[in-house]
Amino acid sequence: MKITVERKPAGQVESEALIVPVFEGRRDARFGAADLFASGEIAGKPLELTLLHHPPGVRATRVLLAGAGKPEKFDPAEMRRLSGAAVRYLKAKSIKTVAFALDPEFAGDAFASAAIEGAILGDFEPDRYKTGDDKKSIDAFTLAADTPGLDAAVQRGRILAEAQNFARDLVNQPANRLTPLDMADAARKMAAEFGLECEILDRDAMEKLGMGSLLGVALGSAQPPVLIVLRYRPANPQGSAHLGLVGKGVTFDTGGISIKPADGMEKMKYDMAGGAAMLGALRAIAQLRPAIPVTAFVPSVENMPGSRAQRPGDIVTAMNGKTIEVINTDAEGRLILADALTYARRQGCTHLVDAATLTGAVAVALGHLNVGLFASDDGMRDRVLASSRAEGERMWPLPLEDDYKEYLKSAFADIANVGGRWGGAVTAALFLKEFAEDTPWVHLDIAGTAWLDESKPYLAKGPTGLPVRTLVRLAMDWKD
Ligand code: BES
Ligand code: ZN
Ligand code: ZN
What we know:
The chain is an alpha/beta fold. The protein has 2 domains: 2-144, 3-Layer(aba) Sandwich (Leucine Aminopeptidase, subunit E, domain 1), CATH 3.40.220; 168-476, Aminopeptidase, CATH 3.40.630. The chain contains 13 helices and 20 strands. The strands form 4 sheets. Strands 7, 8, 9, 10, 11, 14, 15, 16 and 18 form a 9-stranded mixed sheet that branches. Strands 1-6-5-2-4-3 form a 6-stranded mixed sheet, covered by helices on one side. The chain has a 3-stranded mixed sheet with strand order 12-13-17. A hairpin with an 8-residue loop joins strand 3 and strand 4 (62-69). The longest helix is centred in the middle third of the chain and has 23 residues, at 150-172. It is elongated, with a radius of gyration of 24 Å. The protein starts with a strand and ends with a helix. The structure holds ligand BES and zinc ion (2 copies). One zinc ion (ZN) binds next to strand 10. One zinc ion binds at residues 250, 253, 271, 332-333.
């Protein structure tokens, strides 16, 4: 999608369709819409869309009146949804060129970025393996506005949304087309394109480092494991913080010997969504260049029940020396993250965020609307929550109290990898804390939010690309 800005009145911009936000209670009279408001055909409710053909006084062939809701409730998140819904509606009608009229009252940088993001995110379809020639997409999107910071805001929106779609495309790849080695290749290629350092640790390297917890998960698969490391170094770092982003990269999760039921198992290709989000975040960070060094760590494995697979009851030794009794081989995410967190600390990261499709329990607790957030440090929690709010990626804090550690007791090793029936998202987070140790750390359980089962007016079904934007903002807004 080609993104441009035209600094002239929206009515003078040529396109197949001009998107115009209309607000509840404002009774817009432009484009002959007064009658439609008067008759009640249009109210301006959120995401209400009305297409007008050959409207008077505009160069565009059509005007799409896009309900924006009440002006006092309109924020960048609402703008992102509006723009996405409008784009998806128009492309379904085979329209290729679109213009967007920024409302003068809502034309600040955050709104301009959100309009661009909504369009790019809304245009994404998870149909790359459909062979028909009837695929629809928007070729050109023009923002009609004239504010001082516009070009930078548009650029930022484009970089963020493209990074998010990059992550979504990886998540969408089935496991036969995205093995751990393929994920490493994708990271390497992206790093070369955007000027990041990339290092891939193979099994030998990880054995030398003592990553017994990570390597145990890989035993059941013919696909070799990798630990992908991407480094962004600012030209002039400010302060002494070094942010580490750790993402779960299980390219397929059968459950291993503790095998999952067949029903719905195909969805477990999205078990690398946390890792994909970290790669996406680094893609944007490389272009936006924050002042803080950021390193991504993505342990990538396939969890399979092959003849060499680890068994329930096996005891592995993690890189930090702790022994783990593997009660359930399906709780594999925490096992690979354990060693990745230790490695990130040894690499000098002073602050850590991990994202992982870690537990079904987080979806039981929070549904599909909020990411489950766990923090070992109030300052880190507040930073991540502030970024998530600003980006409209909802997150909700859950407890990380040491009292729950009792659930993870093992009679035979330092810790068990599962904590029983209750509080599954909490015990998973507490398990990880044993490896984040005293480094300020936030854990994001995205199992309920990384995948949309049904499309929304503004977003296709499938991978959501959460929490790429939050992580990028966290780095951009960092102050020591
Ligand atoms: N990848 C799954 C978690 C998951 C479930 C992600 C549903 C997305 C949707 C994870 O590896 C897993 O299997 N967790 C188990 C943990 C249990 C064995 C303690 C779970 O949630 O059932
Ligand atoms: Zn699992
Ligand atoms: Zn998993």
